[in-house]
Design brief:
Residues 324-344 are annotated as: Disordered. It is a single chain. By secondary structure, the protein is mostly helical. Among the domains are: 19-61, Arc Repressor Mutant, subunit A; 68-135, Arc Repressor Mutant, subunit A (Orthogonal Bundle), CATH 1.10.10. It is built from 15 helices and two strands. Strands 1-2 form a two-stranded antiparallel sheet. The longest helix has 18 residues, at 101-118. The chain binds a DNA duplex through residues 1, 3-4, 6, 14-17, 35-38, 49-52, 54-56, 58-60, 87-90, 101-103, 105-107, 109-111.
Length: 372
DNA sequence: AAAACTATCAACCGCGTAAGT
DNA sequence: CACTTACGCGGTTGATAGTTT
């Protein structure tokens, strides 16, 4: 069955609305209320298609529309909801009072999507993607820093806009570690467990485990990445290593700390309930939690990062809170002390996701040419 | 100063579907 | 039940403002 045209388009105006047209539409809707869009233009004396009138009203003229920059909380809410709902812009907009689906869609495509790509996160699946990264440009731009044998802060290496749980960077870190290890084995005690919380990094870092055994992980799609049993020798497994280690006992590059405001717990170690609890001092396999990320069928890597953060912060950003209390997200200002929710710049927001996750100390013997 | 390029966002288009006849 | 109509949604376009060269 052919679709009926929404209106007769002959002689109807298109393009940007004039102030007079806006006034006509506002006046008419104030008197008669919205609805019956097909007849509205004729009744309101507008040479417009009803669809155009509806769009103008719902996206621009409606009195309850909130205009201006999206707050950090709104942005976080959008990301979380998108990880669950996908491109259901109207559903997302329903949870963001004052924001229209069109506005959210535009903001997603022009800001959030690009940021996620820079972070190495697939904006569709919210899963880490190595192929989205242009690591060569990053390295080239910072090669002078690499050649400096002194302390290298990865944050400065990446510039202020580069996030630090970028999977490619984690892979680079893994490579640095492996290249500089004379025994081609890791000194597990110096490894930030977050390095392995990314399933892809974990998969690619399989050779880094001295015993070749990697904890079992379940991806969001519930497929097992690694099924090898976990060694009972906890110290051979970086995910289970105690955190009271001596960072000075090796000439390995040292991952000094993890202090990402979103990701880290007060213990400076990732609390990632859906993965391995790195805080455990007990190396027994019996204490390894079930690594199932299936609480939400469409949960994502990023989702879990955010949720892990929220677990430690009174569910300030938990998915449940977002889903159940549409307006709470915009009112919540307790999320993070490091995040200025209203005045943060684009770069600051990105940094807030993951700043200072990793800091590396690069030994003098390391040759940057190996990476270029 | 001007051309070229990029980012933004309002508006349009076509499709799916609920509601009406 | 079949058909028609209207609405709402998501993808896309294009005008314009801003930035870079």
């Amino acid at each position: 069955m052919g679709r009926a045209p929404c209106c007769d388009k002959n002689g109807l105006k298109k393009g940007p609305w004039t102030p007079e047209e806006d006034l006509n539409l506002i006046n008419y809707i104030q008197k008669n209320g919205p609805g019956n869009w097909r007849n509205l233009p004729k009744n309101a004396g507008l040479q417009r298609c009803g669809k155009s009138c509806r769009l103008r009203w719902t996206n621009y003229l409606r009195p309850d529309i909130k205009r201006g920059r999206f707050s950090f909380e709104e942005e976080e809410t959008i990301i979380q909801l998108h990880s669950v709902l996908g491109n259901k812009w109207s559903a997302i907009a329903a949870r963001l009072p004052g924001r229209t689906d069109n506005e959210i869609k535009n903001y997603w495509n022009t800001h959030i999507r690009k940021r996620l790509l820079r972070m190495g996160i697939d904006p569709v699946t919210h899963a880490p993607r190595l192929d989205f990264l242009d690591l060569s440009s990053i390295l080239a731009a910072n090669s002078s820093s690499f050649c400096n044998p002194s302390l290298l802060n990865l944050s400065s290496l990446l510039g202020s806009t580069q996030p630090l749980f970028n999977p490619e960077l984690l892979r680079l870190a893994s490579t640095i570690l492996s290249l500089n290890n004379n025994n081609n084995k890791l000194d597990h005690q110096n490894i930030n467990p977050e390095l392995f919380n990314n399933p892809q990094n974990l998969q690619e870092s399989h050779h880094l485990f001295s015993n070749g055994q990697i904890p079992q992980l379940v991806q969001p799609n519930n497929q097992f990445l690694q099924t090898a049993p976990i060694s009972s020798e906890g110290f051979n497994n970086p995910m289970l290593a105690p955190n009271n280690v001596d960072n000075n006992q090796s000439n390995m590059p040292k991952i000094i700390s993890s202090s990402c405001p979103i990701l880290s717990s007060q213990e400076n170690i990732i609390s990632q309930p859906n993965y391995v609890d790195c805080r455990s001092n007990n190396s027994s396999t019996s204490n390894i939690p079930s690594l199932n990320i299936g609480d939400f069928p469409e949960s994502s890597y990023f989702q879990n990062l955010l949720d892990s953060y929220s677990d430690d912060h009174h569910e300030a950003f938990g998915l449940n809170s977002v889903m159940s209390t549409p307006s709470s997200s915009t009112n919540n200002t307790t999320v993070n002390n490091n995040i200025n929710s209203t005045s943060s710049t684009e770069d600051e927001r990105e940094i807030s996701y993951c700043s200072n996750l990793l800091k590396f100390e690069i030994p003098e013997s390391l040759d940057i040419n190996d990476f270029l």
